[in-house]
Task: inverse folding
């Protein structure tokens, strides 16, 4: 089918029947397609949408639908009307095709146009998933070569993702680290405020527009939010990780490995308690140390247990009856077993004895370990319960720690992916920030910092508000890694600020009240002067400069955006800028990237919030008062008893990981803004000894969240013919 190209000025009312017009126009970050065509055209780039219209001069637009990306590179010519300084990468256009820049004259029915023969009319709606599918990722081996990885350092999982071996750290050990940037946020609405999209948009801007080596480090999303209410965590629009469905679902199986390892520990506990209850010391010993071909010997993990018991013998025949009893009897107290079974998706009815997989201590260990050996040692130190004599029982006492390391040996390697614009991304670990420490892995950050080099940037993201994810990033992750951030990018939205300024409740799945879609400077100012101001102050407690990123939505007015930026700077932010990465990709965050670069060039005075040698209760009180704004804390009798026990066992110098609602600075989800005058209730205190922190449970916080009445999985489906997924967002 040939293309009939007509260039010039023509009366629209005289168009012959079946002709059509293709116009690419820069309009608030969008590419606008007007007309009808017989082919599907493909545009690969950083724009919000491709909108396909049937244009009639007399009756305005008949259709307002999103046009899917297909094959723009088949076009013989592309006309760009009124594009200003819009940049069109040469790779978008077929070699030899004409690119025509012009300003249209649409008055009195006059237009510059291209005419195509017409066969049918395409009508589509577009989603993040369709945008992701429209861009073909570069092969992962090509991406790896571009960022400096060697072929032998890559373990491909299909065409678009791969595990990266930790040997890279040894090869690049003399390479200086790049700049380390943390993306955090204000207290969010239940809808989320776009930290992942800001992270992706920022690295795309740093790479494509500032021409700097950059890397994003993100957490792997849990299936709970993906199939529940929040959706995936790949970002969105033109600032997302691709392929989006692979990112949001199984990826390379890391969370499945964590679930399997977690439940292996639970099975080992069940089995050991059963066998100890039904067998004599002699029978237990004969089965735990069997004779094989007439030879009886201890396994290495059993020798480690003997040594912890103070028994310096390696010959099973030399043990006394008392030593055999001590060796074979863990004597776990059923009322003091602390290990929970793990499941990948939220489950409310079986809360007792269950944790969502991302709350598992094994997930925290994966995120905090700095080598395979470190992970193995941390797994061995995990405390699963207490004996009847009051002694902690570890995974190594169960004899299961070596098997756990085997299950986790591939999971410890970060997964390499890319953004829509081809910027590299490490996806690794996925602890929640409200019930765990809420950050991607130390290893992913360390690998990325070496790969970008001294002048490069690594951007990582902390979960939920700065009071939760950022505080734990500094006090837990930075202690484990030894890394220090250069800048905090604090994400805010007009929507969330209106909520904190006194707006009505925001509920997932319900339409936003008019206060959120109409201009309301009073609500915006109230949210800025309460929650935004407090979150900036929290970042300054750690001595790190703050750049505020206003994630722009289509309902935001310029006056509202300007007000947020002005108040943010008045509250101590180094800079504050609107970001349009969702609509424009990296180009929409170029000003943010420049501000981050400038802030990172200045020295910071990083400091921890507390000394780990402080008593556990005082560390909890410090976080409650200085970060959350509480007057004081109140420990339940159980919590007080456990803090005393942890001190006795030598765990008192561990940092604190608060399990608290993410919907408020306080423990009360409905208290917005920056609440004061409250006492923070500590219901329970638990210990993740392998991960290396104490975690208090605040108020009614649960480590097994539940699904909503109508979860997202109602809309998720698979086409059995094409194998395409629908309903993910």
Result:
């Amino acid at each position: 089918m040939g293309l009939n190209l007509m260039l010039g000025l023509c009366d629209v009312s005289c168009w012959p029947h079946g002709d059509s017009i293709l116009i690419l126009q820069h309009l608030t970050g969008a590419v606008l397609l007007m007309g009808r065509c017989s082919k599907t055209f493909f545009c690969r780039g950083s724009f919000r949408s491709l909108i396909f219209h049937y244009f009639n001069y007399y009756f305005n637009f008949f259709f307002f639908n999103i046009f899917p990306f297909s094959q723009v590179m088949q076009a013989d010519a592309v006309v760009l009307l009124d594009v200003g300084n819009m940049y069109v990468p040469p790779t978008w256009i077929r070699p030899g095709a004409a690119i025509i820049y012009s300003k249209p004259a649409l008055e009195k029915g006059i237009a510059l146009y291209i005419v195509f023969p017409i066969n049918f009319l395409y009508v589509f709606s577009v989603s993040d998933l369709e945008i992701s599918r429209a861009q073909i990722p570069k092969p992962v081996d090509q991406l790896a070569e571009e960022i400096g990885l060697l072929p032998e350092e890559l373990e491909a999982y299909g065409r678009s993702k791969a595990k990266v071996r930790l040997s890279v750290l040894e090869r690049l050990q003399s390479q200086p680290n790049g700049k380390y940037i943390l993306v955090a946020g204000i207290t969010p609405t239940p809808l989320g405020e776009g930290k992942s999209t800001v992270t992706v948009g920022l690295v795309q801007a740093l790479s494509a527009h500032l021409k700097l080596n950059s890397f994003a480090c993100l957490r792997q999303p849990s299936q709970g939010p993906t199939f529940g209410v929040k959706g995936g965590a790949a970002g969105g629009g033109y600032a997302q990780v691709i392929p989006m469905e692979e990112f949001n679902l199984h990826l390379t199986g890391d969370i499945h490995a964590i679930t399997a390892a977690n439940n292996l520990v639970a099975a080992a506990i069940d089995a050991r308690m059963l066998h100890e209850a039904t067998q004599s010391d002699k029978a237990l010993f004969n089965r735990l140390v069997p004779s094989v071909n007439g030879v009886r010997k201890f396994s290495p993990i059993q020798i480690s247990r003997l040594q912890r018991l103070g028994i310096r013998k390696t010959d099973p025949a030399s043990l006394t009856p008392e030593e055999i009893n001590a060796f074979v009897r863990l004597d776990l107290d059923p009322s003091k077993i602390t290990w929970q079974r793990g499941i990948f998706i939220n489950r409310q009815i079986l809360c007792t004895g269950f944790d969502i997989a991302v709350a598992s201590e094994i997930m925290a260990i994966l995120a905090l370990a700095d080598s395979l050996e470190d992970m193995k040692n941390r797994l061995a130190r995990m405390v699963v319960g207490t004996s009847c004599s009051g002694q902690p029982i570890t995974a190594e006492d169960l004899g299961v720690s070596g098997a756990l390391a085997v299950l986790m040996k591939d999971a410890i390697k970060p997964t390499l992916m890319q953004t829509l614009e081809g910027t590299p991304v490490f996806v690794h670990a996925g602890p929640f920030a409200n019930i765990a420490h809420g950050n991607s892995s130390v290893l992913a950050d360390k690998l990325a910092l070496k790969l970008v080099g001294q002048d490069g940037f690594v951007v990582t993201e902390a979960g939920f508000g700065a009071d939760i994810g950022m505080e734990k990033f500094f006090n837990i992750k930075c202690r484990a890694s030894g890394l220090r951030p250069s800048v905090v990018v604090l994400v805010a939205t007009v929507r969330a600020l209106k909520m904190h300024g006194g707006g009505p409740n925001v509920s997932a799945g319900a339409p936003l009240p008019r206060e959120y879609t109409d201009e309301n400077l009073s609500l915006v100012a109230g949210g800025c002067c309460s929650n935004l101001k407090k979150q900036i102050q929290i970042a300054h407690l750690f001595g790190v400069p703050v750049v505020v990123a206003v994630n722009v939505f289509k309902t935001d007015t310029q006056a509202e955006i300007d007000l947020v930026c002005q108040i943010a700077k008045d509250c101590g932010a180094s800079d504050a800028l609107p970001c349009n990465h969702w609509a424009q990709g990296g180009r929409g965050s170029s000003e943010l990237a420049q501000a981050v670069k400038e802030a990172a060039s200045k020295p910071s005075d990083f400091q921890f919030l507390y000394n780990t040698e402080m008593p556990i209760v005082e560390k909890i009180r410090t976080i409650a008062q200085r970060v959350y704004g509480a007057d004081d804390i109140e420990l339940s009798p159980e919590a007080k008893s456990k803090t005393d026990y942890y001190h006795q066992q030598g765990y008192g110098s561990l940092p604190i990981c608060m399990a608290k609602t993410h919907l408020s600075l306080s423990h009360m989800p409905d208290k917005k803004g920056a609440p004061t005058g409250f006492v923070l209730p500590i219901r329970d205190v638990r210990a993740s000894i392998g991960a290396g922190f104490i975690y208090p449970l605040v108020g009614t916080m649960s480590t097994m969240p539940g699904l909503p009445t109508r979860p997202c999985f109602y809309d998720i489906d698979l086409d059995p013919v094409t194998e395409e997924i629908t309903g993910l967002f």
User: Anything to note?
Assistant: The longest strand covers residues 679-688.
